[in-house]
Structure formats: C-alpha cells, structure tokens
Amino acid sequence: MNRKRNTLISCIIFLILGGIVVGAASVALKRHKWEYYLDEPADLSKKQAGIYLDDLNELDSFDEIPGIVAWFEKWYENVHERKLAVIGKYKFTVPLITWEPWSVPLNEISEGLHDDYITEFFTAVNKTCPDNTVLIRFAHEMEMRPSYGKAWYPWQGKDPSEYISAWRHVYKIAKSIAPQVEFIWSPNRSDEYSDPYFPGFDYVDYVGTTANKASNYDHGYDDFGEYYSYVCGKRNLEKWGKPIIMPEIAYSPAYEDENSRSEYIKNAFEYFMRDPKMTAIVFFDKDVSENRSFKFTDDKKNTEAFFEGLRILKEAQSEAKE
Question: In the structure, what pLDDT confidence band is assigned to residue 319 with cuts at 50, 70 and 90?
Fold first, then answer.
C-alpha cells in the first residue's frame, strides 16, 4: 500500500514539475523573439541596413530586424515620442528621423523663435532613447537646380547662409541636450548645387544623398553602384571626409518585371558591403506618385531579397568578429 502511495506521489510530483517546465518553456516562447539581441546595441561603427516604416509595430512580423528604422516627421507633428517608445524596446535598432520644417521659415529657426519646440523635441529623444544613437536628417534635399522646375519643399533653394544658420542652431541645441543624437546632411545630389549648403565639418556627423531610381531607364543605370557614382555624386560626397549613410534607396521599374526590383535590392546590398566609406543604407518603402512606385514590401520576392541582404550582412559581421 505504501509502495503504491509513494508511486502515486512520485507521479504527481513528476507531473507538477513537468507542468512547470512546460509552463516555463511556454513563457520563454512568448518572450519577444528579438530579446536575445538586447545585449548588442546598434553600433554605427559597423555597417547597418534599414527601412522606412510608418507603423513601427510591423517590426514584430519581420524575419530579420534591420539595424536602422526610419520615418518622416514634420515639425510640430510630435509622433517621435510614440515611435521612439517602440524603438526603446529594440536597443539594437537605430532610429532615423527625417525631420522636415514644413511651415517653419529657416530664419525663424536661426533667430530662436522655435527654441522651445526644439528643446522639447530633443528632451523627449534623450528621455526615451538615452542609450540609443538617434539619427536626424534635418531639412533634406535643400539644393535647387534648373531641372527641378520648382521647389519640392519650403526650405529648398533658400539662401545657403540662411540654411546653414538654421542647421547650426538646431545642431547646437540638440547636442547640448542629447549628445547621442547625430545629424545626416543629405542633399538630393552631391554636386556644385548642393556644395554651398554644407553646414561645416564640425556641424555634420554623416553625409548622404537620396538614391531613389525612378525606373530601369532612369539615366540608363541598372547597377546601384553606377547610379550612386554617376548620378548621386559619390566622389563629390566623399570629399567632405565624413562617413556616408544613404538615407533613401529605392527602385521603381518602368515595366512589370518580377525580378528587376529584387535584383536591384540585392545589387545595392552587394555594393554597400564593398564600399568602405558607406556606413549605412536605408531602403525607402513608399509610393510617391503613379510613376514612382517605390514600395517593395508588398511583394514577397522583393521582401525576401531585403531580408536576405540583412542576413548576409549580419553573417559577414559575425565572421569578421570571430
């Protein structure tokens, strides 16, 4: 009788312990799948690749987490706190904010009329991401050239001294509040039209250009490296002596070709990994007009090409570390 009772007690204990183990495993599975990265904060001294996202919660469905997550934000729009709170969970991801002063004249910025807002903005950044590098792409594509016809933004084509004064004013406030913030100076093209707008070596952390290729007929370059070199101004950009972040890369084929966009994504990653002066690339994932269908994550093959590029990049870095 005692033997049966002891056996029964042993079985009960075994079941209880088994339940604890299963429960623990279940809890572990419910933990966020990216938690194992938390001890490896994003490091821009290594190459990083990123993407623009309107809804940062999409990160939960990603096969691979990008090193940079970017979005556009207008001044006084105040979406950064909510989005940075999401980024706060991903210490291994760098936020990149293309910060656009729509309806805010550059001279008002340099004269200090918006200092309260600028201070509040970077105080929130510092509070939400105290240990994260945060990239700011302020008033991008500021140059004007004859082929544009008209300005795309209210800050575009303004007097260079006015632009530089506004940039330096924002830069100084940002660094005094959140020293982990780093600025990307980002014209549309790097050439004689954009050169006068360079804010100065001591006021810029990274440089880059927009590299959104409208079609495979655009300038006749199918190769990302050629497009970057001959259209975006690679050599001219490198002369500033700053590490390079390409803050917008996209490709929109002129005709339906199921392979051209995915091949271009692969090609961009391949070039990026070869270029020692390029620190990061960020893929633009939006449609901006009927003939500029840049969104690629609505297609499985293109999305897989992006994630495969992330995987290859991480594997290469792991091998280099070993």
Answer: low
